[in-house]
Amino acid sequence: MLLFKRTVAVCLALIFSIAPAEAVLGPESFAEVFNEMLKTPSLSNPAMIIIDGKTGQIVYGKDINSQRKPASVIKLLTAAVTLDYLDPQSVFETTVSITPENKTIVIRGSLDPWISTDHTVARKMNRTSLPSMGSKTLTAIKAANGGSFKNYKVIYSNLYSEDVANLKAYWAKRGFKPDIKSVSDDEALLQQGEVISAENSPIVAAILDWMVLWSDNLLADRLARLSARAAGYSPDMKGVNIIFRALLTRLEIDHSKLVVIDASGLSKKNKITAQLMGEFLYKINNDEKYYFLHDSLPIGGVSGTLQDRFTSTSPNAVGLVRAKTGTLNGTATLAGYVESTDREYVFVLLADKIPLGNSALKKARAAMDRVLGRIAAPNIPAEIAPTP
Hints:
The chain has helices at 2-17, 27-37, 75-85, 119-124, 130-144, 161-172, 185-191, 204-214, 217-230, 237-250, 274-284, 291-296, 358-373, and strands at 47-52, 58-62, 93-99, 104-108, 153-157, 179-182, 194-200, 321-328, 331-340, 343-351. The chain is 39% helix and 17% strand. A five-stranded antiparallel sheet has the order 2-1-10-9-8, with helices on both faces. Strands 6-5-4-3-7 form a five-stranded mixed sheet, with helices on both faces. It is elongated, with a radius of gyration of 25 Å. Helix 3 runs antiparallel to helix 8 and helix 8 packs across helix 9. Strand 1 (47-52) and strand 2 (58-62) form a beta hairpin. The chain folds into two domains: 12-86 and 206-373, Beta-lactamase (3-Layer(aba) Sandwich); 93-202, D-tyrosyl-trna(Tyr) Deacylase, Chain: A, CATH 3.50.80. It has 13 helices and ten strands. It is α+β, with helices and mostly antiparallel strands.
């Protein structure tokens, strides 16, 4: 259903994008036009690269090897390693069981990255519902303990500390304040009793799709750490650094200027180059393993974090740009693909020196939209009249 809605939206966007506009640029004109456009103060000396999606040739570049803040554009690396190490069709399961003889509640998790504290949202999106688990636990304890919460303890495995804190808060509001202890999964399995609640997340592919489409920082961080764990490394930024660099090495991309502090892009200490990200986007677009990532990207003027872009700044580009946005105070980035008649270009725009504040950010985004508007054009095959 989601794919159908996106397809319809893209079709409508393409219809409205076929409007009078400036002549679409060819590669031979990129340098002359973009050198001038990128001088705008609203972009404050950005880095930019454009790569021909068919040949891999760099057709335009400006400061392509300077280290810049990627902001959420770094989530593209997170998405790729998720596809490398996690099964897209797998789910995360969380079970709650009770052993009345030991007055113990046992929660066995699987590090579900997307447990919801809102039951309505959880059911609407098929996510694990923390309120449901919490409520069923209280009901089971009362039934087994004469209506009392006294003397019951909770042990758990493979839950994030934030989710444990949310459960404690949920129970405390309802009068249950147990001792809670983290144990190994083997111990949790050993003490597991009658299951009173079993919740599953959506499949990994659906979680990843949401993360890319809406740039969810928490999901990005957790998916990257889970990928490092699945690869056999520590589920921390040390492990994430290893798998990011292993990915780029496999793709034969120089990562010497890559600096990774987090997997979401929130840190201003993260660094990439336009060339690194451009080569990465070109190479994964020619690898069937990563096709899912291309299709998950927000579409300009249509979906996700790009749904409000291009509509007024470059209407001719609506529906023709698929890209990951990035935003920090003083930074605006955009990286992805733009359709231009008979081909698709890879592009990366990194403006990490813009003035602080929302006004400057809006101006930078508008300038980026106008740059891509000079490239974007739908591929409309010529109709050949049948021979009489």
